[in-house]
Structure to design on (620 residues):
């Protein structure tokens, strides 16, 4: 049985705040915390609010951050020693101050505010907050903006109330309420609680706006929004609010296009339902697949040929595309969304994190850590829940499966991360996170709901367990924070495709290397059987037409066999733009193993691999 990680301190202060406010109620009056009755009532309510804020002050975590900023930015973070001295003076008094606030003692309010102000100044003086404008989406949620649970009969989290797909495995086009929302793209300046929100773009008819991506030069951004026929499309807008235009095709009446990102070579990666392929476990859902196009929307080309959805493409520091791939051929579908990378032309598609593991179920909105070759931060979540989840930093250099590459869950300084195998993995855990934006490998801006009674706001969080509110707005959720500033454009990777060809070359160095054929004596593998999958069309694929139990879901079509040399190597051609899987065969033609995944090669590409499931991190 899973135990919730909701803070007991958080629960206590929520209950206390309610008790302090509730003790002032008159018969028949609202229970809202805004009601006060005389000086005593105002004092009690102020004590309750102060205690709520003070419970978010962790002196140990604050000291860690101050010391780290002093080491990292000795010239820029000049008041660190003053902050530490003040913190030392207050730390021992905290228990007494909290107890006084619980009694409603107004004399403790001034000291409490001094401590809260110390935290705010020490954390907001972080030199990484060196920008004065922050892009974000301001949206009025359905129902209570402080809602902390999903539907009563089948709780899948609060995502759908925030204008997100109800289930993490769904895409934007599965949502049936895409207009009538109160939402807009806004700019916060300065980036602080007192900062002003200025409207950049208000969509017509209350259409949802989602999945913003800022260009490297910070002069334009893309976002997803339904058109007048309620089909999602990709739009571009100047950061001055001018020159709105649709980039995705306008002549494909039944196709959704969304979730785009700018690439260093001037192209755009995005997700499209153009293949009209059905999700295997839900035939009525159209698969969203990865495509690329020119910056003006021309020269569209499909680059992934998957069984199921791709999600969240983003440009990596080295110029590759990082994205989430859902696959479940011959494996359980609830735990099978893995991070992948590919070059901007679609070549070199390979696992980045998670393949072969059962935790986490998915990592949404993964973004590369600035100035780091391998680390990423993302939102860990389950399957039959929304995309709301936990904030986790990964480094595949430490390992690529389960929790091997976990650097830290935030908050969770010094604590191990248990790889729980659960469908609704993060449904009952707190804080709740969405849309991370890394400032470094230690500091992050993120949309967050720290406690069940809090609003969704924009926060600065760090690996030392500090959580600092940057902006919230009563009645609204603030989502998708993006610093409005120029960023360094990653290097351009030269195209390796040859679009005049319809095949690709595959070189396998040694079939016996790797854990896939552990224990199989050399010389036992004589041939490789190559096969492809027949991924069914929309409304044709699905659970009622599957082959087997919980997989393999689709028919396999044999393409042929190729010989394996005595040294374990093989060299062969395969059709391009085709999912290819492999079975090693013995002398009798019997399969010795099954590749429970697939590879896809672009036209003219040369694909190479070391062995059978040989790990990328393995040495020579």
């Amino acid at each position: 049985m899973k135990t919730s990680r909701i803070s007991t301190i958080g629960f206590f202060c929520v209950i206390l705040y309610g008790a302090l406010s509730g003790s002032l109620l008159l018969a028949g009056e609202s229970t809202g915390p805004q009601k006060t009755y005389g000086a005593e009532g105002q004092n009690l309510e102020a004590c309750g609010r102060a205690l709520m804020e003070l419970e978010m002050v962790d002196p140990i975590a604050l000291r860690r951050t101050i010391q780290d900023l002093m080491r990292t930015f000795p010239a820029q973070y000049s008041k660190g020693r003053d902050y530490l001295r003040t913190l030392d003076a207050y730390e021992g008094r905290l228990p007494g101050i909290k107890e006084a606030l619980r009694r409603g003692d107004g004399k403790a309010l001034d000291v409490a505010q001094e401590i809260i102000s110390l935290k705010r100044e020490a954390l907001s003086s972080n030199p990484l907050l060196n920008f004065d404008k922050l892009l974000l989406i301001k949206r009025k949620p359905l129902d209570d903006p402080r809602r902390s649970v999903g539907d009563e009969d089948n709780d899948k989290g609060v995502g759908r109330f925030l204008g997100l797909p109800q289930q993490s495995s769904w895409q934007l086009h599965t949502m049936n309420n895409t207009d009538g929302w109160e939402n807009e793209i806004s700019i916060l300046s300065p980036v602080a609680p007192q900062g002003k929100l200025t409207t950049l773009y208000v969509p017509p008819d209350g259409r949802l706006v989602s999945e913003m991506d800022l260009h490297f030069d910070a002069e334009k951004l893309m976002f997803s929004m339904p058109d007048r026929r309620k089909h999602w499309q990709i739009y571009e807008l100047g950061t001055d609010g001018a020159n709105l235009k649709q980039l995705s095709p306008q002549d494909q009446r039944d196709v959704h296009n969304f979730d785009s990102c700018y690439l260093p070579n001037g192209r755009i990666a995005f997700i499209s339902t153009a293949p009209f392929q059905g999700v295997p476990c839900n035939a009525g859902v159209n698969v969203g697949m990865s495509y690329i196009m020119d910056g003006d929307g021309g020269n569209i080309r499909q680059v992934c040929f998957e069984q199921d959805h791709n999600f969240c493409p983003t440009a990596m520091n080295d110029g590759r595309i990082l994205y989430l791939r859902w696959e479940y051929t011959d494996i359980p579908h609830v735990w099978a969304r893995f991070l992948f990378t590919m070059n901007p032309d679609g070549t070199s598609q390979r696992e980045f994190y998670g393949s072969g593991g059962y935790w986490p179920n998915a990592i949404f909105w993964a973004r590369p850590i600035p100035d780091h070759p391998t680390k990423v931060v993302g939102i860990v979540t389950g399957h039959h829940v929304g995309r709301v989840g936990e904030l986790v930093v990964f480094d595949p250099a430490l390992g690529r499966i389960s929790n091997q590459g976990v650097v830290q869950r935030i908050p969770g300084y010094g604590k191990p991360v248990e790889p729980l195998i659960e469908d609704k993995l993060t449904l009952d855990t707190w804080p709740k996170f969405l849309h991370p934006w890394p400032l470094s490998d230690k500091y992050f801006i993120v949309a967050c709901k720290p406690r069940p009674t809090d609003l969704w706001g924009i926060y600065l969080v760090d690996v030392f367990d500090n959580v600092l509110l940057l902006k919230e707005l009563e009645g609204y959720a603030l989502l998708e924070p993006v610093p409005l500033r120029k960023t360094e454009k990653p290097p351009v990777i030269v195209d390796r495709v040859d679009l005049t060809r319809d095949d690709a070359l595959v070189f396998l160095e040694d079939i016996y290397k790797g854990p896939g054929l552990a224990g199989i004596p050399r010389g036992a593998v004589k041939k490789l059987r190559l096969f492809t999958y027949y991924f069914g069309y929309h409304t044709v694929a699905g659970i009622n037409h599957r082959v087997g139990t919980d997989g393999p879901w689709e028919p396999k079509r044999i393409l042929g066999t190729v010989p394996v040399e005595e040294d374990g190597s093989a060299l062969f051609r395969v059709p391009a733009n085709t999912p290819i899987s492999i079975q090693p065969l013995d002398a009798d033609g019997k399969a010795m193993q099954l590749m429970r995944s697939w590879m896809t090669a672009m036209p003219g590409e040369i694909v190479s691999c070391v062995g059978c499931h040989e790990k990328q991190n393995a040495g020579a």
Observations:
- The first strand starts at residue 134 and ends at 139.
- The mean pLDDT is 90.
- The chain is about 15% helix and 30% strand.
